[in-house]
Here is the input.
Amino acid sequence: MSDTEPQTSHQVALVFDLNKCMGCQSCSVACKTLWTGDKGEEHQWWCTTNTMPGRGTPRDWEQMGGGYRDGELQLGREPTLEEFGGGWQFNKEEVFFGGKGQSIHLTPTTAEGTPPTWGPNWDEDQGAGEFPNAYFFYMPRICNHCTHPACVEACPSGAMYKRPEDGIVLRDEERCQGSRNCMRACPYKKIYFNHERGVAQHCNLCFPRLEQGVAPACARNCPGRLIFVGMLDDEQGPIHRLVNKWKVALPLHPEFGTAPNVFYVPPLSPYRLREDGSIDTETMRIPPDYLESLFGPAVHEALATLVRERERVREGERSELLDTLIVYRWKSMFGPFTEEPATVSAAREGAE
Ligand code: SF4
Here is the structure.
């Protein structure tokens, strides 16, 4: 990793509890509505929620490379617009205002006017496995605001930076020269290129909201109460409890080497059914090997901890871990960011 990498005094972090995600896309839409409504941003979904297993957004991003190997920066491949799903157009005029709403349905087309062949959630709910042991779960993804951000090291103009006070990875669009090296270096493929303006763009963790004590739009709008926000070093906060104390929240693809600050509580699943219909209480339906391929070997202990604590509660005991994950008080998820969004005077203005 780079010797000049900035040291952060504090780090904002998020935990997504995948056991509670219902794939409603509220987080994705809240982000889209707030941040990417301008020209050149049609294809940009800084927060995407995909069905897992699946090809994801951009399509097959896990095979595109980037990150670090043996401490060396890797430039992977830049995703194409088509792999991101493009920005679809709809025949809204015709359906809503042309008097044909009873006979013509909304139909998407690409910017080239052709039917789309991929989209941000193209393989929704397909999953894997055979009935009756088919399985899937949902996984929201944003920029991980990594401790070792490959995007920052790869940027030739100094436009990408990690700010020291809270570890958010931001970009200075005035300095961006459009090299797109950040897109190649990010192993999570969470950077988009704005072809209208010639600059890279990505999730900024709603920093104008955070600066005023308001949780990011994705977290605040999640009806499932699964997105925790806080400072990693706040020992009283839920992030520290889930990541460091109970060790049930894990980074996605730790082998990519960027040390993400977005963590996931892995999904538990029902036991598999045998061919005769009996229950195999030794085997969970989501293969642990698959979860290990996402979250690394620590996932097995994390799952065991979740099961153990669940059993304790079933036997009438209290569990600090389950109390944290259940979230009895909504705002307990947001650490120091519990202010109302209405207090943010102008989320968009002065953002970049
Ligand atoms: Fe950079 Fe990608 Fe990490 Fe975000 S997820 S900080 S864009 S390397």
